[in-house]
Design a protein that fits this description.
Elements lengths: L4 H18 L7 E9 L3 E9 L5 E9 L17 H8 L10 E7 L3 H4 L6 H5 L2 E3 L6 E3 L2 E7 L3 E2 H8 L8 H18 L2 E2 L8 E3 L5 E3 L6 E2 L5 E3 L13 H8 L4 E3 L3 H15 L23 H7 L9 H8 L10 H15 L1
Antiparallel strand pairs: 1-2, 2-3, 3-7, 4-7, 5-6, 8-10, 9-12, 10-11, 13-14
């Protein structure tokens, strides 16, 4: 269940080779297979990437929707942080964080725009109309090239069902999630959209955190502007963040948010369903207060499942309502690593 150095080295070597190839590529080098996903910030295509020497690789090509005509060197602005954070701010290739291989500016092809899978609103924002001639043409936009992995954690959990905990796989997924979140925390990166849909599963069954389109960087003391935390995924947002936003605080302390998000992920991985039904709306009677989880009840529910000692208690510690009572992300990572080592 511990990190596999050989698999990590292989991934690193593949990333280095692909990065070199992408640096000499252009849009015509990408043959689109399908749309992997689309959201407020971009559309991700599954592509076959080829260059002159006959090399072929499968990559994810992300087309930015909110591109404002900036030059490729001017990406560190609101809602265009993804490339800057992944390529410049984070200092190394992490085994559980997506890696961006390169970027370029180009006009999307009509094949991309006319895809039946593309939502009409997305299609409209990729086109511009010449005022004089009325001719409709694609807008120039930004493309990121990312490593591609076959499944999301959501898909994998649906596929595995109750067998996710067999052979320590559930614990491994929890450890990988903690490694990714703790790495971001150490580098002051606030992801803002943590959820199983944004975690990929590699062919080697490693979890890879992806989709940094909403990410921002906290200051040196881990404070973030309140306006920067209004976006993202409210389902995974900690109670104190919801409460401080409701109180119209100008700055929020991002101290134990990742602990909460790890707890939410671990609960879905190990228990097999979302925790706190209806959260946060069902708890919004003034200040949001979530109840303490029942350790004994969860242990009874998992009595026939292979779950390491202490894992249920850790989930409960991560999902405590008050950040003061919640275990920190670094301590949680060390606890999971110790469990993994003991089970190896």
């Amino acid at each position: 269940q511990n990190a596999n150095p050989r698999k990590e080295k292989k991934r690193l070597e593949e990333i280095i080779v692909l990065t070199r190839l992408v640096s000499v590529g252009k849009l015509s080098n990408y043959s689109i297979s399908s749309i992997l996903g689309q959201g407020a910030n971009g559309v991700v295509f599954l592509c076959d990437f080829s260059v002159r020497n006959g090399t072929h690789s499968t990559v994810a090509l992300k087309m930015i929707l909110n591109y404002q005509g900036l030059q490729t060197s001017s990406l560190a602005t609101a809602y265009q942080n993804e490339y800057y954070i992944l390529k410049t701010h984070l200092p190394e290739i992490h085994p559980n964080v997506i890696h961006v291989l390169g970027h370029f500016c180009a006009k999307p092809t009509m094949e991309m725009i006319e895809s039946n899978s593309l939502e009409p609103a997305v299609r409209d924002c990729l086109l511009t109309t010449n005022r004089k001639t009325g001719k409709i043409t694609p807008k120039k936009t930004q493309f990121f090239v990312l490593e591609c992995h076959p499944h999301t954690l959501t898909q994998k959990l649906e596929q595995l069902g109750a067998f996710v905990n067999a052979g320590g796989r559930g614990l491994k997924y929890c450890l990988h999630s903690a490694r990714a979140l703790e790495y971001l925390f150490q580098h002051h990166v606030v992801h803002r959209d943590i959820k199983p849909d944004n975690i990929l599963v590699s062919e080697n069954d490693e979890l890879i955190l992806s989709d940094f389109g909403e990410a921002v960087i906290a200051d040196d003391e881990y404070f973030v502007k309140a306006i920067d935390l209004r976006a993202g995924n409210p389902r995974f947002t900690a109670p104190e963040v919801h409460n401080q936003l409701a109180q119209k605080e100008r700055k929020l302390f991002f101290g134990k948010q990742y602990s909460w998000e790890l707890g939410m992920l671990m609960y879905e991985i190990i228990i097999g369903e979302p925790v706190f039904d209806g959260y946060p709306d069902a708890f919004s009677h003034g200040e949001i207060i979530v109840p303490e989880l029942d350790i004994q009840g969860l242990q009874d529910e998992l009595s026939t499942v292979e779950v390491p000692d202490g894992l249920v208690e850790l989930i409960v510690q991560l999902l405590r309502n008050s950040p003061a009572d919640r275990i920190g992300i670094t301590e949680a990572l060390h606890t999971l690593a110790s469990m993994s080592h003991a089970c190896a």
